[in-house]
Amino acid sequence: MLAAFAGVKVLDLSRLLPGPFCSMLLADFGADVIKVEDPNGGDYIRGWKPLLGKNSGFHVVLNRNKRSLTLNLKKPESRSIFKQLVAGADVLLEGFRPGVMARLGLGFKDLKAINPRLIYCAITGYGSDGPRSQKAGHDINYLARNGVLSYSGRIGNATVPGVQIADLGGGALYGAFSIATALFARERLGKGQFIDIGMADGALTWQCLRWGKYLVDKTVPSCGDDFLNHGYACYNLYATQDGRYMSLGALEPQFWQLFCQTVNRSDWSQANYFEPGPHQMELQNQVAEFFRGQIQAYWIQLFADIDCCCEPVLNLDEVMRDEQVLSREMVVNLIHESWGVYSQLGIAPKFSLTPGTIRSHAPELGEHTDEILAEIGLSSSTLEELRANRII
Fold first, then answer.
1. Which pLDDT does position 4 carry in this prediction?
2. Could you give the 3-state DSSP secondary structure of residue 16?
3. Would you tell me which of 36, 148, 295, 316 could form a disulfide with 242, CB atoms 3.0–4.6 Å apart?
4. Inter-axis angle of helices 18-28 and 173-189, to 10 degrees?
5. Distance separating alpha carbons of residues 7 and 352, to the nearest angstrom
6. CA distance 126 to 198
7. Pick from 295, 319, 343: which residue ends a domain?
8. Mind listing the pLDDT tens digit for each residue in 331-354?
9. Is this structure's pTM higher than 0.70?
10. What is the domain range of residue 54?
């Protein structure tokens, strides 16, 4: 099958989550992603427990379809080699603090002189400029600074989301989209460009609905104040008798009416079910008490064929065996020569002509170093010398 990014070479210097997820998306659709790592341990995430073989399960999921090259960029000799790689690359992805690459002589201005068609994407916490550009941060900090956490959770109980919204949504996805956009623009303009991705910026845009509401009513959002964050009975989580949960998302009138009809509570099917007010808490309490009357399995069976947006909250083990997940090939079983059989996340976008594929396992540290450097003309004797000098 034709690969959408076949022939596109990506040099990925990023670590941990945002950058590697971004480059994984490109690799899944055919890009040759070269993961450039320090010889002394490589990407920090490799060592995070639990391990699969010698590597973290996190690394295994994030770095499939990539090749690993070790290169100590602190040494001048390695920077010369890196520039040779840049000359033949299409994309450079990095996640250092602003200015780090420039101090190494590898900033965008330095590299575009070598390769004017290079697309340089930097994923940072707060972007390349502004008063917080040099501050350290993580997903929780970006969501906190941008207001997301101020209204996530129930009344008086702010919460941390279970997935990394800023890292993945604000950083990785925007990064992959922007790189694809820049590749498209390069076909028209004939040259590359610098892409400045701030995860805090990206997370801010994920608040588009609350932003739009605030523009009109000027009411500052808070936990449990609205129909999408525990404020309404028709859109909420409810505990069951066995300590599990059901999710109810009956926003539209037809869904709410069908839900009420199914549970024989016509008294709940009032016009004000989708209006704010003190009645919402009373209605929530009634619905909560009702769900606590049976175990989750009972509710799963009751709503199995009822189209009213009432679904069980599954744990990850259950998700990996879910018939919808399996039918969409979102769990793929692979066999590694050392690790044995393991389950990999599938590829979410389904393309009819240029589908993504899982072609290789996550690489061992430096697994492809000799192969990659031979491609730019380095001899085996040179490689031995570089290895002896701890440059690779």
1. 97
2. coil
3. 295
4. 50
5. 20
6. 5
7. 319
8. 999 999 998 999 999 999 999 999
9. yes
10. 9-205+328-388
